[in-house]
Design brief:
Number of domains: 3
Radius of gyration: 37 Å
Distance between the termini: 42 Å
Largest sheet: 7 strands, antiparallel
Mean pLDDT: 83
Shape: elongated
Strand content: 5-15%
Structural class: alpha+beta
Helix content: 40-55%
Strand order of the largest sheet: 7-14-21-20-17-4-9
Length: 642
């Protein structure tokens, strides 16, 4: 026999864990400690069956904590106090006695805690916890109704199975409704909590400035920046354009939005991508270099090939981009050379001297660029993210002394020398490379792929992409092909593909997609006639009738009957086969069968079965197993077979 109260207590703890585990990483230390302490305290007291802390004591403890976090609540800090109070209230309830009322409070608080975790991360894991929580809550609610009738109620295992099966039907029946309402329920373009909570997921991988020398070392982050659905490309073509930096003070490069008008003439192989960026504060839209069109509402396009979203950032979006893969962009009109030749008032003497050498070495822009490329290629420069130059002389140190740095050092130094030599240029910030997921058909680009390169305006040709980092002695590491696909990598890619499908189908699903679905359905319905409807639904109607017939046949076969009925039917069939005795309507009863056969196995079966069923109780597991054993022993013992 199983005690309903014990089972309900176990489910209550599981519900509490489902609600708090996703939220736990986002809590501060104090709520974490209280939550763990409350869980351990509750388990210890439930095991002993003694609860020294009364409910009114718990309420007294909660009041000052609520006041403390209420004082901390503000427009700049609205989320953390609320989730802290929810977690602490749940911990207090878990530490106390689990009567029906308190169990219901734990269920509600657990659901609120799980919902709060979606303010920070709405991943497929959230859906798993939500589904698990809803199923367990449905089971627990049914058990609580029995506990409310009798605190010490116990049930047999067969009865418990029937109760749990009935309880699981409720959430299962709700699944079709969920699938039906998801695509049609109205929704906003922005998450409802967006105005309360700043985005916490996924930095963009690059900032709004290039400032080499700000740190002596750079840590590589594997945080996801974006995914791009597109055909696989050559690794050296994977330049993802973000923003353009056109002003420098000699070290730091920034972007001035009031740039001169340009009329680029872009030719090349067209590549279409669907980009799924991770939420960030950046308004810049990433696309394969060089993008010519991005399909997203309220987008600002600049002449230098930068696309920016207008309005608030931080929400999860997706957009389609068309790019012409070419490292050279011609101009239909002359550019504003003074704008792209701007230099700071003070430049180190050695940089001025080297710039003069570059200028004198070439008769035109092309030869100057080639001279500077050879200077970097033969200068023993190394690409590195550690032991970097710092201070006020970082560019000078990089060029003439340390000769090692990351892409910001290479691009900043190269562009500064080009401008000193009279070649217009600018920096481009974005990403380089990516890991192609063969399962999902998309590129995975992480923050460690953030990159900066140079665009130089070659007189008579146009803007040309130059990546000074490629002149480093160890540059092959930047363009190396992916290694062998191990089992671990394939599993990782499969999991990421699942995560991508979740984001694409659920998270990014918005009002625009609803309109597209509605328009598609409307266009399909225009050519629909009653005859077509009947022909379309005929197979489904036939399938429904076939399924109903099968269910009826199965039901008549007593598959859904109780085990008492099933084993009795087996017994009566065996009696008829072994002893030629007819039972049922107009036939012999159980005791008459036992008397007529005078068989010890038949007599034992009738005694056990009647002792349970005729006394209005179900068979125990031991009795049921004994009856099955008797049926096996009855084979071949009857008078008819002998």
């Amino acid at each position: 026999m199983v005690a309903i109260r014990s089972l309900t207590a176990i489910l209550t703890y599981i519900i509490g864990l489902c609600g708090t585990i996703p939220l736990f990483p986002w809590l501060t230390m104090f709520p974490r400690v209280i939550l763990v302490a409350g869980l351990i305290s509750g388990l210890w007291q439930d095991r002993r069956g003694i609860w020294p802390m009364k409910p009114w004591m718990q309420n007294v403890v909660i009041v000052p904590i609520f006041i403390y976090y209420a004082i901390q609540f503000s427009r700049s800090n609205p989320i953390q106090p609320v989730i802290s109070v929810l977690a602490i209230m749940l911990a207090v309830r878990l530490s106390g006695e689990k009567n029906v009322r308190h169990s219901l409070q734990i269920f509600a608080l657990s659901i609120f805690c799980l919902a709060s975790s979606s303010l920070f991360d709405l991943s497929p894991i959230f859906l798993i916890y939500l589904g698990l929580l809803l199923f367990i809550v449905a089971l627990a609610l049914v058990l609580l109704t029995f506990q409310n009738q009798e605190l010490a109620m116990t049930v047999s295992m067969p009865d418990l199975k029937r109760i749990l099966f009935s309880a699981l039907l409720m959430p299962l029946l709700a699944v079709p409704l969920l699938l039906f309402f998801f695509p049609i329920m109205p929704r906003t373009q922005l998450p409802l909590w967006n105005f309360l909570n700043p985005p916490v997921a996924g930095a963009s991988g690059y900032s709004d400035m290039v400032e080499p020398g700000s740190h002596s070392s750079i840590g590589e982050s594997r945080t996801l920046a974006f995914r791009a659905e597109m055909p696989s490309q050559a690794q050296n073509q994977l330049y993802w354009r973000g923003t353009v930096f056109n002003r420098t003070d000699g070290v730091k490069w920034t972007r001035i939005a009031q740039i001169p008008a340009e009329r680029p003439e872009i030719v090349g192989h067209k590549v279409t991508q669907v980009i799924y960026p991770e939420p960030s504060d950046s308004h810049t839209l990433i696309a394969l270099d060089r993008p010519v069109a991005i399909s997203l509402q309220r987008v600002k396009r600049s002449p230098d090939g930068v696309f920016e979203v207008i309005g608030s950032a931080g929400r999860r979006v997706s957009y389609s981009a068309d790019s012409l893969s070419n490292s050279l962009v011609a101009q239909r009109n002359p550019i504003d050379k003074p704008f792209y030749l701007q230099l700071p008032d003070q430049l180190p003497a050695r940089i001025k001297t080297l710039g003069s050498e570059v200028s004198q070495a070439g008769k035109d822009d092309r030869s100057k660029v080639e001279f500077l490329e050879n200077y970097f290629r033969n200068g023993n420069y190394r690409y590195s993210t550690v032991d970097l130059p710092t201070g006020d002389r970082v560019i000078e140190q990089f060029i003439f002394e340390k000769k090692q740095g990351h892409c910001e050092f290479f691009a900043s130094s190269f562009a500064l020398l080009l401008r000193t030599a009279g070649v217009p240029c600018r920096l481009v910030g974005g990403y380089l490379g990516g890991e192609y997921n063969q399962i999902g058909g998309y590129y995975i680009v992480t923050d460690d792929k953030a990159h900066v390169w140079v665009e130089a305006n070659i007189d008579g040709s146009g803007w040309e992409r130059i990546d000074p980092s490629s002149f480093a002695t160890n540059a092959g590491d930047l363009w190396k092909s992916p290694g062998s696909r191990s089992l671990k990598l394939r599993i990782t890619m499969a999991l990421d593909a699942f995560n991508h499908v979740w984001n694409r189908s659920v998270i990014v699903y918005d009002f625009e997609q609803q309109i597209k679905i509605a328009n598609h359905v409307g266009s399909r319905l225009q050519g629909v006639t009653p005859a077509k409807i009947l022909r379309s639904f005929a197979p489904y109607v036939a399938g429904v009738f076939l399924l109903a017939g099968l269910l009826l046949a199965v039901r008549r076969a007593s598959l859904f009957s109780s085990r008492e009925q099933r084993i009795l039917s087996r017994f009566l069939r065996m009696v008829e086969r072994e002893f030629d005795i007819i039972s049922g309507k107009g036939g012999a009863g159980l005791f008459e069968i036992a008397s007529a056969t005078a068989n010890s196995h038949v007599i034992d079966f009738v005694a056990i079965y009647a002792g349970a069923v005729y006394h209005d109780r179900s068979l125990t597991d031991d009795e049921y197993l004994r009856l099955r054993q008797i049926l096996r022993l009855m084979r071949g013992t009857g008078s008819k077979t002998s």
